[in-house]
Automatic annotation (TrEMBL):
It comes from Aegilops tauschii subsp. strangulata (Goatgrass). This is Ubiquitin carboxyl-terminal hydrolase 14. It catalyses: Thiol-dependent hydrolysis of ester, thioester, amide, peptide and isopeptide bonds formed by the C-terminal Gly of ubiquitin (a 76-residue protein attached to proteins as an intracellular targeting signal). Belongs to the peptidase C19 family. Keywords: Hydrolase, Metal-binding, Protease, Repeat, Thiol protease, Ubl conjugation pathway, Zinc, Zinc-finger. GO terms for biological process: protein deubiquitination; proteolysis. One of its GO terms (molecular function) is cysteine-type deubiquitinase activity.
Amino acid sequence: MASVMQVMFSTHPFISRYFEKQSLKAAFAISQADPTLDLNMQMTKLAHGMLSGKYSAPSQEGQEGIRPRMFKSVIAASHPEFSSMRQQDALEFYHHLIDKVEQANPGNHELNPCTGFKFIIEERVQCPSGKVSYNQHCDNFLTLSIPLHEATNKEQLEAFHEKKAAMDLDGKEVSKEEIVRPRVPLEACLASFSGGEEVPEFYSTALNSKTTAIKTTGLKTFPDYLVLQMRKFVMGEGWVPKKLDVYIDVPDIIDISHMRSNGVQPGEELLPEGASCGNKAEPARPVADEDIVSQLANIGFNYFACQKAAINTSNAGLEEAMNWLLSHTQDPDINEPISQDPMPAEDTIDEASLQTLVSFGFPEDVSRMALKASGGNIERATEWVFSHPEASSSVSADSSTNNVKDDDSHISDGSGRYKLMAFVSHMGTSTHCGHYVAHILKDGRWTIFNDNKVAASVDLPKDMGYLYFFQRISS
């Protein structure tokens, strides 16, 4: 929370909204509810505490800083994880903060400081027929995979691994000074995001069959502030979340103009619309796959329970149905006949498990599908995502799908040239432990913000960031 809020209150939209154009008295006067429960009031209070300079002067007792207990209480009130004292993910908090601030400033785009962080992503899918479909959605950060095979120090890495293997045989440990980590350029991470990828099991309305399509992704708009998340947290052996030990070479200035997507191009033919595309072929009431049901029934499970397992995992397969069944054996109606309602009731998804998957970089809707298919188990849900790549690329085969809301029509756009203005780093081995610090470019010099400790950064660890914040360079 400390790292993210320091960065956000170093951006012009948040400084202007909650400090320059909002006094404490005015915020208190217009508070529509109890000021202690009003997010805009607490944001203003926090902004004045951080930006006024009143709490930055050192005293005889030392620089104490501020303790934003009311702000934490308000921002975390409806979140089961942030309301606890457990270790959380900085990206989750950033995303949660944006959502809450937008809810606190509905319909007023001039007051909403989050507008400058939002942008439109456009996905283009081309099937073997040559026809294409486009899908748009809005987001406020980009998650970038780290292509380790693009490391620029491969020879040093190979030599290090040979040395480490030899030392392991001798029962010796490599010192921290001897460790060689992969160095991957940020350009390679951006190229991995926008490069083409295969979409298996894509239903083409042009071919009236499932096929493998090619998906490319670009940005329809470029935001004032671009937030990049490096996907450093992955699932290791035994399905234990671990952190990639890697350096990212990040330049001070980047140009992503080549990542702009310009929509349907002259000569392109859109995939035809049809009732057979996507989920439109599904009947109003889901039907269980009899092969899955019979295999489960042969094991000894109740027939009706087997039907529910197949339906609630979208007929994904025997293993997924078995996992669901084992986690729902205590349901009071598990062995009762299936209701004739058009759609089954939605399983309740554990918010903490959902946010854990999102922190791995999986889309929220795909994470929900995975948790539902795996009975809420994070390890099996992660495996489900990797074994169902078509889920994360599930683009409707309609000619064009636009999931951008009317409120998003005020999204800013401009040049694709950016300068690095801040980054948040994680020190630790996984999302469940460690510490976050922020480095921010202030008045021409880099400053480290470590909770209530603030100092000039001597040896800038720019290659160790987890979240990078870029500001557009005005033309």
